[in-house]
Amino acid sequence: MIVDDPDAFQKLFLGFEHVAFKFEVRRSYGVQAEDLPFQEFLAGRDPGIEWLRGWLDLMASQTSTGKRVERVRVVDDPPSDFLRFEISITPYNLAVGEDIRYIDRDVADALDLPHHDFWLFDSRKLAVLHFGDDDTFLGFETVDGIDDILQHCYWRDVAWTRATRFADYRS
User: Which one of 4, 65, 71, 106 has the lowest number of neighbouring Cβ atoms within 10 Å?
Assistant: First the structure.
């Protein structure tokens, strides 16, 4: 069942104990709060970060207690406009303790990594993200099957060990 409640999604980040990991494969994300900042970015203007403040505060509150928040982003060469936008704001994510890394789409495909986004919490709770054909975020689905969780743990490990740190990716 797909859950589209923002409060339920936020609770995932309040309830993990050690590590939250996200695997990102999409070239574009239709998240309403990002629409205007993305358009500002495309127009060559600085969108600021106030629109991102809630997320940054949440991540800072979690990482300040020693928890880790990690992501691997699958990117094209050159990256899509939306991924360029995400790359431009990544220093703010890093400043609050997230660790975001990058892997080339061709490498991810060669490694048989999945073609869907997911969050994995403490290697035991899996949230698969769902999007519409127009890239609109529809919500998440919690997957409880141990085989599914173990497969996603494997994909996390493969992606993480092959991904490039942000500073190295930028250079």
Answer: 65
